């Protein structure tokens, strides 16, 4: 042993390390093997100390992989590293039963290395270097999933950074620089890397001591608003479920368990990345610090705080729960993550990743609403102040995820009840003018206090009683699976929506949008800013109503269901009342009025300004298609906006629910009623001739979308039949119209298309006939990724 480590730097900690800086190696001294050959178990996590900087690909600085239990096992002259499988177990059973459950399900062996030496005490010296250089973060898989082609790890350019090795009493931190290459890189990486076909990231490996005994797992309750870990317990008694879920949370213990309010043995502390600039840093720390209010309300005094990371501290050290600041080439999602003990659900480290360009997009929207000259004025309409208010919300939201809380997308319908919703800016009209003074709420919401009280409470009957009481007319809770997607029928859960009544809020938002469009112009630009930037700033103003359309649409064919538990009074799931559904249909159809889809004529010359300079990807992907060069395409913008509403109303699952609800209760609107109303709205030509081109474009889009609905294999037969009937109704309306030569040609073309189902299906499927809306939400993977909890 002495000869093997001669001249090497020794680092003492959880696992003694020997660093060979000259050869770029790290040797690890493992404990003597036990009777099963295991030389230590640790929670292993891989993270990115440096990132790619691409929002769509998601390989961000500070991003962590889920923690897994890694065992080092001696096998002859080698040591293997394997991830143990704790998802299947027999808790509390005799050893033989536990062994049977453990041996029935495979572990994952991920590495094998030669034993360098052993000492007299039986300790094993291994060279861990080749473990560190493996693609533990799934970089090549992430690139492939994002549509990038041909990426591979370059072995001779992937090296251990021996100088980065650190050893602490409860964790060991090791690092490698990994290089990836492709002969056919896509635009996303080419836009970032200095050499388009090659980039390098620093990968951190953390080996963490298993938590001390004494943590009390909390049984998951679907009404509590937490994340969960799932396992199968084969020792469960007959009559009890084998599949069990455990809530995810930090260990938090009162110093006086009998006191209603008590200090805690170990507070939860999050540390702010020193790389975040001011005043952004202070806003994030303030918002994240709001959680102290929730813990105080739950009886935990001084249990939570946010501090600036001490100078020289390592943000990836597992001892620090972090709020990381991630610069990217385009705006993207932020994430609240956690490293957990997979056996119990105990959170060991929170890790928040905040995208730097989100606040820039907020500034762009606010400048488009009230003017760039308001920046720095300090009033209620100062875009900078509104953007900082949004950052406070974002800091609170992502730290909430890292505390173990999931999204609550129903909170916006109950007076901003949670920071775990996605809040749009609340834009008011005061004396006919845009007002941002109440853009975002301040502080933790009532739902946040309730969910922390349950998640960090004692559980058992007390926890059940808390949630049972809330079920009796309390706060709504609906999370991702029942809020995302156009097909969802839960009426209260949407993203970026506002207001107690989604349909009424859509009508209000359309009034706000009319004022915003009438005000929009050169005032949205800063002195010296290219006029071509108006095209980018115009998109979120023109599509200001896009998310409220989705929210109102969920009332149509909606079913008011909850995450009910038997006996709590919410077992039944009634349909949305007929009047509310019809009000929503009316509000949605109003968004298809040609006047609402038309860009003001005075803006068209300003939106067609030339653009010169280096290619900027974050601008190119954020604008409407043009008529060649910079010339603004009013009809493409109109069709894009119309498509948002058509996609909602023509969703096949929504229409199938309408058919079924009408069968069960004829007083409720059916699919035929909604489609007839849609056709009557879209194919009713406006009296004003200037609006006819937009009406014609919307009609063409409606015909293609109805054709697509009728022809898709997954469309239920009853819905396909209704779509064909709607096309016939549209053809009849077109046939009864007169007009100028352009109108006649338009009418004849659409009738011919309706009468030729094969050609209609061909065009309906063509991507070229369906312009996509520019990104609205942060660009990237969708904000809901396995292992991450994002917004």
Intertermini distance? 51 Å
Largest sheet, in brief, is: 13 strands, antiparallel
The assigned structural class equals alpha+beta
The tally of strands reads 27
Poorly predicted parts: 780-791
Radius of gyration: 29 Å
Shape: globular
Report the sheet-strand fraction. Answer: 15-25%
Count of DSSP-assigned helices: 23
Q: Let me know the average pLDDT.
A: 93
Multimeric organization: single chain
Helix content: 25-40%
Report on this model:
α5 packs across α8 (383-402). The protein is built from 23 helices and 27 strands. Strands 1, 2, 3, 4, 5, 6, 8, 9, 10, 11, 12, 13 and 14 form a 13-stranded antiparallel sheet that branches. The model is unreliable at 780-791 (pLDDT under 50). The chain has a domain at 9-208. With 791 residues, it is of the alpha+beta class. The longest helix has 20 residues, at 383-402.
Structural key phrases:
18% strand; disordered C terminus; 791 residues; alpha+beta; 13-stranded antiparallel sheet; seven-stranded mixed sheet; single chain
In short:
With 791 residues, this protein is an alpha+beta fold. The chain contains 23 helices and 27 strands.
């Amino acid at each position: 042993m002495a000869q093997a480590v001669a001249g090497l730097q020794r680092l003492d900690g959880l696992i003694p390390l020997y660093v060979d800086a000259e050869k770029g190696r790290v040797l690890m001294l493992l404990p003597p093997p036990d009777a099963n050959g295991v030389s230590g178990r640790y929670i292993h996590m891989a993270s990115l100390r440096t990132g790619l900087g691409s929002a769509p690909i998601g390989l961000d600085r500070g991003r962590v992989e889920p923690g897994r239990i890694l065992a080092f096992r001696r096998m002859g002259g080698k040591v293997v590293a394997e991830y143990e499988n704790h998802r299947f177990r027999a808790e509390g059973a005799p050893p033989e039963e536990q062994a049977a459950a453990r041996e029935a399900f495979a572990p994952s062996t991920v590495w094998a290395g030669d034993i360098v030496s052993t000492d007299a005490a039986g300790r094993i010296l291994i060279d861990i270097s080749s473990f560190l250089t493996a693609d533990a973060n799934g970089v090549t898989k992430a690139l492939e999933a994002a549509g990038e082609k041909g990426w591979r790890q370059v072995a001779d350019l992937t090296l251990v950074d021996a100088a980065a090795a650190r050893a602490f009493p409860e964790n060991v931190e090791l690092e490698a620089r990994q290089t990836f290459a492709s002969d056919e890189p896509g635009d996303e990486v080419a836009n970032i890397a200095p050499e388009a076909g090659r980039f390098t990231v620093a990968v951190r490996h953390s080996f963490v001591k298993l938590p001390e005994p004494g943590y009390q797992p909390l049984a998951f309750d679907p009404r509590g608003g937490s994340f969960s870990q799932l396992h199968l317990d084969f020792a469960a008694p007959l009559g009890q479920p084998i599949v069990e879920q455990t809530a995810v949370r930090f260990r938090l213990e009162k110093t006086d368990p009998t006191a209603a309010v008590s200090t805690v043995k170990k507070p939860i502390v999050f540390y702010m990345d020193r790389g975040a600039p001011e005043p952004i840093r202070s806003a994030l720390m303030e918002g994240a610090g709001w959680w102290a209010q929730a813990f105080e309300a739950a009886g935990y005094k001084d249990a939570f705080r946010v501090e600036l990371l001490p100078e020289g501290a390592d943000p990836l050290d597992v001892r620090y729960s972090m709020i990381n600041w991630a610069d990217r080439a385009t705006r993207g999602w932020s994430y609240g993550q956690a490293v957990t003990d997979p056996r119990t659900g105990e959170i060991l480290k929170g890790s928040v990743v905040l995208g730097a360009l989100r606040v820039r997009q907020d500034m762009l929207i606010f400048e488009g609403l009230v003017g760039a000259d308001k920046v720095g004025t300090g009033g209620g309409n100062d875009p900078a102040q509104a953007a900082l208010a949004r950052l406070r919300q974002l800091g609170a939201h992502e730290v909430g995820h890292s505390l173990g809380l999931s999204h609550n997308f129903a909170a916006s319908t109950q007076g901003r009840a949670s920071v775990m919703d996605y809040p749009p800016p609340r834009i008011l009209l005061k004396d006919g003018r845009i007002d941002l003074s109440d853009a975002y709420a301040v502080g933790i919401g009532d739902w946040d206090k309730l969910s922390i009280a349950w998640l960090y409470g004692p559980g058992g009957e007390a926890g059940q009683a808390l949630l049972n009481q809330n079920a009796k007319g309390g706060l709504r809770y609906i999370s991702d699976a029942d809020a995302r997607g156009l097909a969802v029928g839960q009426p209260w859960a949407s993203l970026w929506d506002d207001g107690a009544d989604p349909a009424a809020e859509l009508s209000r938002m359309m009034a706000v949008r009319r004022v915003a469009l009438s005000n929009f112009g050169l005032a949205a630009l800063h002195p010296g800013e290219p006029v071509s930037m108006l095209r980018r700033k115009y998109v979120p103003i023109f599509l200001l109503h896009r998310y409220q359309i989705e929210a109102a649409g969920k009332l149509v064919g909606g079913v008011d269901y909850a995450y009910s538990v038997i006996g709590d009074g919410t077992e039944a799931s009634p349909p949305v009342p007929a009047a509310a559904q019809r009000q929503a249909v009316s509000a949605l159809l109003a968004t298809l009025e040609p006047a609402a889809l038309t860009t003001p004529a005075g803006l068209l010359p300003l939106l067609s300004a030339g653009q010169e300079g280096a290619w900027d990807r974050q601008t190119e992907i954020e604008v409407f298609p043009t008529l060649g060069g910079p010339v603004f395409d009013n009809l493409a913008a109109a069709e894009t906006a119309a498509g948002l509403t058509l996609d909602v109303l023509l969703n096949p699952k929504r229409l199938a629910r309408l058919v079924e609800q009408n069968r069960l209760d004829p007083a409720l609107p059916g699919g035929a009623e909604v489609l007839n109303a849609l056709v009557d709205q879209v194919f009713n030509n406006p009296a004003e001739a200037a609006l006819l081109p937009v009406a014609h474009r919307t009609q063409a889009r409606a015909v293609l979308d109805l054709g697509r609905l009728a022809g898709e294999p997954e469309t239920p037969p009853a819905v396909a039949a209704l779509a064909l009937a709607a096309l016939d109704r549209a053809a009849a309306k077109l046939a009864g119209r007169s007009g100028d030569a352009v109108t006649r040609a338009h009418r004849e073309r659409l009738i011919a298309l309706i009468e030729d189902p094969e050609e209609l299906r061909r065009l309906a499927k063509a991507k070229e006939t369906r312009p996509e809306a520019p990104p609205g939400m942060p660009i990237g993977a969708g904000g809901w990724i396995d292992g991450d909890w994002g917004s």
